[in-house]
Design a protein that fits this description.
The complex is a heterodimer. Chain A is an alpha+beta fold. Chain A contains 6 helices and 12 strands. Chain A is globular. Chain B contains 4 helices and 12 strands. In chain B, a hairpin with a 4-residue loop joins strand 11 (184-189) and strand 12 (194-199). The longest helix of chain B is centred in the first third of the chain and has 22 residues, at 57-78. Chain A binds chain B through residues 57, 74, 76, 78, 80-83, 86, 187, 221-229, 249-250, 253-254, 259, 262, 264-268, 271, 273, and chain B through 1, 5, 8, 29, 31-34, 43-45, 47, 64-65, 68, 140, 175-179, 193-198, 200-204. Chain A: It comes from Cardamine amara subsp. amara.
């Protein structure tokens, strides 16, 4: 299979079509793919994707408000029913003014975000100015599109602050790229959306936005089995991102819903069913 | 995910000195979504006999109702409570009746027998009895529970120490399982009293 390997090189990308096409020199064209030699092509593709694709068991969210972008995520990694880690960093620092969130395959997200950081830096050096959030998300989306159908699992949000103000894009492994004000990604996203949408106002202060983001992640971890651990919240302002809080969700529950201490009673009653 | 992991559950029972403890988690879920955090998995058959059922929640409730019915009938006929060993055989027979369309649950039975000797056993969903002298586990978190109990268990613990041990084993195991947890429910039974306690656990 001929892949677009420009992600792995720092020189000009190889051209996929015939190399005698002068017009395409200097452009990154769509690579041509060799097909695998198999009798059941669709079945083989399905199997390959299912084998590699882990479920997007997580909750991440991001929203734009008056003071910038708020980005929050949980920290649980699950393999089926087993919790493999409660302390995964799901908010990836691409560069000092841009953040990416991780949902889906951890290796995929980490690699491609780091790769994106490299490309952004190269852009800065080549053009003497920072890359826009729109440009950065487009670079990532195009790269993921060229690997479409190969089993990458990436559901990420690119959040940053550039000359046009705060920017937020959703990019996924299908090659989709959406611009928006509010996104939540992962198995816990329906629960997070419920809290986020009902509490959202554009004119919030940083503290109110922090509390809204933290509360949304907390509610998602309560209802969703695949989310949990620590709720981290970052803020992206005109001067770059800053981590605001990282609260253990187990403790947050009793902070929001304190329990009156119950006394142990002798229970000698009829089985009333 | 298999049908046994549809609702999520964790049940454990431990033997102490003339006492026993039985504990379960409190989550009821539909695959990854949590529906309730106060689901009762452990039920009393009589003052010295408890049964905890893990697995599909609807079968947990139905099986429990059938067993209570059979025990009440036994009480009327024999004018006494059933011994734990006898009850275990009854459960095993009821489960095997449905050999080719089983109840999708794994019971954990704990009771005080003759001379207040503690008795625990577990079964698979078609009634294979497994007696143990120390502890039995069942549910989606069973592998973690085996590890935790093996590490924390000591023979001949008194009621208070037994409570601490079983609670720690339960909480640490369900904290490694997406499908169980959200609190804990512990019964510690001695010849003279039953102590029921709710555990504060991680709610994620």
């Amino acid at each position: 299979m001929k892949l677009d390997t420009s992600g792995f090189e720092t020189t000009m990308p190889m051209i996929g079509f015939g190399s005698n096409n002068d017009m395409l020199d200097g452009f990154c064209s769509v690579p041509s793919f060799d097909l695998p030699r198999t009798t059941d092509f669709d079945g083989f593709q399905k199997e390959a994707v299912q084998m590699v694709k882990p479920a997007k068991g997580t909750t991440t969210l991001a929203f734009i408000f008056k003071e910038g972008v708020m980005v929050a995520a949980d920290s649980r990694a699950s393999m089926g029913g087993y919790i493999s880690s409660q302390s995964v960093k799901k908010i990836i620092e691409i560069n000092p003014y841009m953040l990416g969130t991780m949902a889906g395959g951890a290796a995929d997200c980490q690699f491609w975000h780091r790769n994106l950081g490299i490309k952004c830096r190269l852009h800065e050096l080549a053009n003497k100015r920072r890359i826009s959030v729109s440009g950065a998300s487009k670079l990532l989306a195009n790269m993921l599109y060229s690997y479409r159908g190969m089993g990458l699992s990436v559901g990420t949000m690119i959040a940053g602050w550039d000359e046009t103000g705060p920017g937020l894009y959703y990019v996924d492994n299908e090659g989709g790229r959406l611009k928006g004000d509010r996104f939540s990604v992962g198995s816990g996203s329906p629960y997070a959306y419920g809290v986020l949408d009902s509490g959202y106002k554009f004119d919030m202060s940083v503290e109110e936005a922090l509390e809204l983001a933290r509360r949304s992640i907390y509610h998602a971890t309560f209802r969703d089995g695949a989310s949990g651990g620590v709720a981290s919240v970052y803020h992206v302002g005109p001067n770059g991102w800053k981590k605001l809080s990282g609260d253990d969700v187990g403790e947050l529950h009793y902070h929001y819903y304190p329990v009156a201490p119950a006394t142990a009673e002798h229970v000698m009653e009829e089985a009333a069913e | 995910m298999s049908i046994f992991e549809y609702n999520g559950s964790a049940v454990v029972a431990m033997v102490g000195k003339n006492c026993f403890a039985i504990a379960s988690d409190r989550r009821l879920g539909v695959q990854l979504q949590t529906i309730a955090t106060d689901f009762k998995r452990i039920s009393k058959i009589h003052d010295h006999l408890f049964i905890g059922l893990s697995g599909l929640a609807t079968d947990v409730q139905t099986l429990y109702q059938r067993l209570v019915f059979r025990h009440k009938l036994y009480q009327l006929r024999e004018e006494r409570d059933m011994k734990p060993e006898t009850f275990a055989s009854l459960v095993s027979a009821i489960l095997y009746e449905k050999r080719f369309g089983p109840y999708l649950c794994q019971p954990v039975i704990a009771g005080l027998g003759d001379d207040n000797k503690p008795f625990i056993c577990t079964m698979d969903s078609i009634g294979a009895k497994e007696l143990a002298k120390d502890f039995v586990v069942s549910g989606t978190a069973s592998e973690s529970l085996y590890g935790a109990c093996e590490a924390m268990f000591k023979p001949d613990m008194e009621a208070e120490e037994l409570f601490e041990t079983i609670s720690q084993a339960l909480l640490s195991s369900v904290d490694r399982d997406c499908l169980s947890g959200w609190g804990g429910h512990v019964y510690v039974v001695t010849p003279n009293e039953i102590k029921e306690r709710i555990l504060k656990g991680r709610m994620d």
